[in-house]
Amino acid sequence: MQDKRITLAWTGASGAPYGLRLLECLLAADYQVYLLISSAARVVLATEHGLKLPSGPDAAKQALIAHLNCDASKLDVCGKEDWFSPVASGSAAPKKMVVCPCSAGTLASVAHGMSDNLLERAADVVLKERGQLLMVVRETPFSTLHLENMLKLSKMGVTIMPAAPGFYHQPESIEDLVDFMVARILDHLGVEQGLVPRWGYDQR
Ligand SMILES: Cc1cc2nc3c(=O)[nH]c(=O)nc-3n(C[C@H](O)[C@H](O)[C@H](O)COP(=O)(O)O)c2cc1C
Predict the structure, then answer these.
(1) pLDDT digits (tens, 9 = 90+) for 20-70
(2) What is the pLDDT averaged over residues 111-117?
(3) Which residues lie with the beta carbon below 6 Å from any ligand 1 atom?
């Protein structure tokens, strides 16, 4: 049977709307989502989306449920040091994890196996269990260090997906650009989606 569980991490890179939309789509596709939110991600979410999440995981979950109007049973917001969360152990963690948006800082921590908080530990678990890890990195320009960290992780099987939406679907809104990225992420996860027209099918 298909494991419809996934770990989603929001970090403090620009691109909070990608993370929010991805969460909305995964919940709509009936996935159980373990959500990890870094402190910087909260600042970015408030700055870019005007959504101020309360600091505790339970209160943050309630705020997100109200904001997205989604099923509470499918969302599990994990605390930074909730070491007893399923995502902290290879014996229970979902096999798929997405870091979206992914900051250069979290990229470096994961590349070096820091496991200093639950978010970094969850990524480390997916790596050691040879699961599927997607990192939607956002920074510009990239330093040599950023590029080396991405190469290192890519060689370990991580999918590096820079937050770089295309324009060939003729976006008319920011939402169209966000959906372009989210559609590519969902495709890689094997989650059915119809957010944007597919190349070669709908354009002819
Ligand atoms: C509004 C805002 C936008 C930011 N944009 C980026 C970004 O695009 N990429 C990045 O690597 N860091 C960005 N940062 C800096 C990170 O948030 C910072 O390095 C933080 O320590 C990352 O921590 P985290 O990886 O634990 O979330 C931004 C910070 C703020 C407040």
Answers:
(1) 999 999 999 999 999 999 999 999 999 999 999 998 999 999 999 999 999
(2) 98
(3) 11-14, 38, 40-41, 43-44, 47, 103-106, 138-139
Report the atom number in ligand 1 closest to the C-alpha of 104: 11
Q: Are 136 and 100 in contact (CB under 8 A)?
A: yes
| Domain extent for 98 | 5-189
Q: Whose CA is nearest to atom 2 of ligand 1?
A: 44
Q: For residue 197, is it within any domain?
A: no
Q: What does the alpha-carbon distance between residue 11 and residue 107 come to, in Å, rounded to a whole number?
A: 10
* Inside any domain, residue 109: yes
Q: What is the CATH number of the domain that holds 9?
A: 3.40.50.1950
With residues binned 3-state (H G I as helix, E B as strand, rest as coil), the percentages for the chain, rounded to 5, are 45, 15, 40
Domain tally, the chain:
1
User: Using CA atoms, how far apart are residues 176 and 165, in angstroms rounded to an integer?
Assistant: 9
Sign of CA dihedral 83, 63, 43, 183: positive
In a domain, 201, yes or no: no
Q: With left for phi above 0 and alpha for psi between -120 and 50, is residue 50 left, alpha or beta?
A: left
pTM exceeds 0.90 for this model = yes
Q: Report the candidate in 139, 156, 127 with the shortest Cα–Cα distance to residue 7.
A: 127
Mutate to test the pocket of ligand 1, among 103, 106, 137 (most ligand atoms within 8 A of CB): 103
